[in-house]
Design brief:
alpha+beta, four-stranded antiparallel β-sheet, 67 residues
Length: 67
Amino acid sequence: MDPQRVTWRTSTRSGNSGNCVQVAAPWHDRQVALRDSKNPGGGTLVITGTAWTAFLHEVKTGQPGRT
């Protein structure tokens, strides 16, 4: 899947600082794509949906998620 053809989202909690991570999900084969909002052409990190879910769990609860 082409990163230029997906819908990138930025957290509403990031405000207008411009220092954000953007996310595109679902990506190819239930993966999640991440990129730096300051440099959207600088590369894309693609992780599994399971890893993304574990990350979100840990951010929200402070407890390690399971991968």
